[in-house]
Amino acid sequence: MAVNFQQLPHSGIRSLIPYKPGKSIEELAREKGIKSNDIIKMASNENPLGCSPLALAELKNISPHLLATYPSPINHPLMSKLANKLKIDAEQLFLSNGSDYIYTILLNCFVLHQDKHIITHEYAFSTYAIQAQTLNIPVHTVADNPNWQVNIDSLIRACNLKTGIIFLANPNNPTGILINPKEIKRLLENIPESTLLVIDEAYYEYAATQLNCNSIDWLAEHPNLVITRTFSKIYGLAGIRLGYAISHPSIIELMRRIQLPFMVNQVALTTAHAALEDEEFIQQSLQLNSEGMRQIQAGFTELNLPYLPSACNFLTFDCKQDGISLYNYLLDRGIIVRPLHPYKMNNYLRVTVGTKEQNNRFLDELSNYYK
Ligand SMILES: *Cc1c(COP(=O)(O)O)cnc(C)c1O
């Protein structure tokens, strides 16, 4: 081979360490020869109840015509239904193929080719930095507090007129930790109006009761705010890839300008539209999650394993040794959790809250390991 293709991309891509998703059930089944039905995945914060039965019924009813035609997300009834639910105008709403793709759109719009950088923090969700690096955009990372809390003062200090976007997840993944909304408000009040603050609220529905406020209310005063949410987590629809951004109409208009026309598909639109009606499923999911959260926390306490306070549907716990050995032990027994080495949290594993039976199986194997 005369050309080394590895050397062709820019330095951002050459040095990129791609996002490593949680191992899939199929992958583990193949690797270990375990039957798929005997494997439980507690690695990617998906809903253990699956998805809303209403959404599933609608999906089964999809017509050949719908599948044969290009989608028109902006004209789909999901737009107005979701906007009504959020109490915003449809002009403030942007649908996307997963909320993760929204970050690339925002980077393209507001940072790329402008001698600007982004800011994120030490234990922030890694996708923001990965997507920026893919575009060769400089990433400034501020240290978190020793209690894993985001240091808002450090963010304010790091921010200047060349800061295109600050990325925060609230609550954060992989820690599960909630940022006090007052602190986010203070951040908004102390950054340039030309710097976008993106708050990734993938776990909003799980955290809503603890949050006690709605970031959408800040939009009127702070048009540089972008909020992202998703159907992947509590709605149990990670497979259809649908997320959305809420912001000022002028920001949304720019995002629509550069979006590929058919990025959100018919199946996603149809299914999400039905899922929005199923409040019962959401309430069931919340209930299952808070019960499972207590169950797993009690198990950790019994085993003397410290865990981080989580406002999400997962718990990040301290294995008191490198987590890989326990991770592999659980894999051998058909339980997939998530190692946090990409975050340099080598002694920690992240486990998604499952059904009562799944949590029991996880806790049983955990106590066997520590025996
Ligand atoms: C799961 C998750 C998302 C959701 O991404 P989608 O692309 O909408 O599936 C976004 N941010 C964080 C922090 C997450 O954990």
Task: Walk me through the topology.
Blueprint: H1 11-14, H2 25-32, E1 40-41, H3 53-60, H4 64-68, H5 77-86, E2 93-96, H6 100-110, E3 117-121, H7 127-134, E4 139-142, H8 152-158, E5 163-169, H9 181-189, E6 196-200, H10 204-211, E7 225-230, E8 243-246, H11 249-258, H12 266-275, H13 279-302, E9 314-318, H14 324-332, E10 335-336, E11 338-339, E12 348-352, H15 356-370
Parallel strand pairs: 1-10, 3-4, 3-5, 5-6, 6-7
Antiparallel strand pairs: 2-8, 7-8, 9-12, 11-12
Helix pairs in contact: 3-12, 5-12, 6-7, 8-9, 13-15
Catalytic activity: L-histidinol phosphate + 2-oxoglutarate = 3-(imidazol-4-yl)-2-oxopropyl phosphate + L-glutamate
GO biological process, one term: L-histidine biosynthetic process
GO molecular function: histidinol-phosphate transaminase activity; pyridoxal phosphate binding
Structural features, described:
- This protein has helices spanning 11-14, 25-32, 53-60, 64-68, 77-86, 100-110, 127-134, 152-158, 181-189, 204-211, 249-258, 266-275, 279-302, 324-332, 356-370, and strands spanning 40-41, 93-96, 117-121, 139-142, 163-169, 196-200, 225-230, 243-246, 314-318, 335-336, 338-339, 348-352.
- The radius of gyration is 21 Å and the shape is globular.
- It folds into two domains: 21-50 and 280-370, Aspartate Aminotransferase, domain 1 (Alpha-Beta Complex), CATH 3.90.1150.10; 64-276, Type I PLP-dependent aspartate aminotransferase-like (Major domain) (Aspartate Aminotransferase, domain 2, 3-Layer(aba) Sandwich).
- It is built from 15 helices and twelve strands.
- The model has no long low-confidence stretch (mean pLDDT 97).
- The longest helix has 24 residues, at 279-302.
- It starts with 10 loop residues before the first helix and ends with a helix.
- The strands form three sheets. It has a seven-stranded mixed β-sheet. It has a three-stranded antiparallel β-sheet with strand order 9-12-11, covered by helices on one side. The chain has a two-stranded parallel ribbon with strand order 1-10.
- By secondary structure, the protein is α/β, with parallel strands linked by helices.
- Bound molecules: pyridoxal-5'-phosphate.
- Belongs to the class-II pyridoxal-phosphate-dependent aminotransferase family. Histidinol-phosphate aminotransferase subfamily.
- It holds the Pfam family Aminotran_1_2.
